[in-house]
Amino acid sequence: MGRVEISHLSRAFVKEDGDKVVALSDINLSIGDDEFVSFVGPSGCGKTTLLRIIAGLDKATSGEVRVDGSLITGPGQKVGMVFQEYSLFPWRSVLSNVAFGLEMRGMPKEERHEIARKFIALVGLSQFEQSFPYELSGGMRQRVAIARALATDPDLLLMDEPFGALDAQTRNHMQCELLDIWETKKKTILFVTHSCDEAVFLSDRVVVLSSRPGRIHEIVPIPISRPRDRTNKEFIDLRRSLLDMIEEERDEEKIKCKSGYL
Amino acid sequence: MNGNLPGSRSPGYIVVSISVLLVLWQVIADVVVKNHFILPSFTDVVIALYDLLFTGTLPMDFAVSLVHFFIGLGLSLCIGVPCGICIGWFAGINRLLDPIIEIIRPIPPLAWIPFAIVWFGLTDLAAGFVIFIGGVFPVLINTYEGFRNIPRIFVEAGKMLGCTSNAALIRYIALPAALPHLAAGFRVASGVAWMCLVAAEMFGVSTFGLGQKIWWYYNLHQMDKVMVYMLILGFVGLFIDYLFRYGMNRTLLKWRQGEVN
């Protein structure tokens, strides 16, 4: 479960002075069950907008998104999301944050807490289940956010730069943990990132978007078997080619840097 | 807390500052003013308090004033919070109600006294109504502000987890997120309500009340007793504020520990 069909999807924003800005133009993409797909592209290419439309938080100007055949018209039961900003409810404990989705589905307290505890254990935070978000570090908060998104058992998990605010070490840890979770829970994951390293490390396929209006520039399969090694030649070559594609797509003046390659 | 000098909250400082004030007061009253009608001295006030404790109507005054206070504050909450939620959450209602609120709000609560009497007669409800007018706007404005400032991310996270109807979003996301604002509004309202109390009781709605007795003893030219009631009003107001702050921080707002205060 968790097939995604995106067909002829476009999104235009109307600015206050009446000008139209086309953020996404004619996106066609089909994503299979339990696939891990990353979206990369220059800043402002509409990656986040695309993810928000798939989530049902934003509406397409034309075209449609289907998840397992059913049309997305608003935030739905089958799609979970992890945001870049810290989105935990600060007035709820870790346990009650993770149980929130189940509470909304009307599950009795004992039952939903039992399920929530399993997911908190999955992200390794069992001893913090009674803590409030302000007591947790950034990495721990995002772990809880992942547990919260998974607790309602969505078929599709959307992640909008979830590790963007974390330091490099924590980030690498979180990537490994996410892959472990993905392998045990079997979800389709769509992952927006700025980091080519992250995209190559995690994904089955990487979708490179062009700069505004966002179009699909290229879809790069990552044929490296897991567990992946970031220092392996094949890995580095793929990273290089992704970086080149994004650099080529950048709108702004090309950065000329004498002391190193981008 | 951080801005204060070290130890400025310690009991030693409080004892020193209050003792100095009491001695100064006594000296000025006895040596400089020498007229107990214009300025009763500290000992006059202590004697008057002792008198009132045994022969006066303090418990009854206290009870009646609390009734007025809670009628007013209760009405402020019952009306201010739902209205604040509506104008904060629904943009259409905001456009409709905002002009009306902005016109009524600047009218001082005490200007409503004649209409309070005409509408409710000389009853406890009339006093409660004046206090309500004083308290309702701080509650309403703060609730509104709280709802305007809810981070969008919480609403979107809630929607993704199946909290999609307006009623559910208000109950599970907006209300808890806005609670610090609501608490601030309630605190301001209880201060304003306590201030309106004296004026509301002065126009003869009841034969008891802390504010009513101030006027009563003024007419009897017993200024020492006026002073006793003034001090009681001050201390009770302080106590209500303290109790409220303590209660909120320990229960509903404990998730904010470490962020503010």
Notable traits:
heterodimer, A: 262 residues, alpha/beta, 6-stranded mixed sheet, 4-stranded antiparallel sheet, 8 helices, B: 261 residues, mainly alpha, globular
Mean pLDDT of chain B: 88
Structural class of chain B: mainly alpha
Query: How do the strands of the widest beta sheet of chain A line up side by side?
Result: 6-7-8-3-9-10
What count of helical segments of chain B does DSSP give? 10
Give the radius of gyration of chain B: 23 Å
Helicity level of chain B, as a percent range? over 70%
Order of helices and strands of chain A: EEEHEEEHHHHEHEHEEH
Give a count of the beta strands of chain A, DSSP E runs of length 2 or more.
Answer: 10
Average pLDDT level of chain A: 89
Large-scale geometry of chain A: globular
Describe this entry's structure for a reader.
The complex is a heterodimer of chains A (262) and B (261). Chain A has 262 residues and is of the alpha/beta class. Chain A is 34% helix and 23% strand. Chain A contains eight helices and ten strands. A six-stranded mixed sheet of chain A has the order 6-7-8-3-9-10, sandwiched between helices. Chain B is an all-alpha fold and 261 residues long. In chain B, helix 3 (58-89) packs parallel to helix 6 (124-148). Classes of the chains: A alpha/beta (262), B mainly alpha (261). At the A-B interface, strand 6 and helix 3 of A face helix 7 and helix 8 of B.
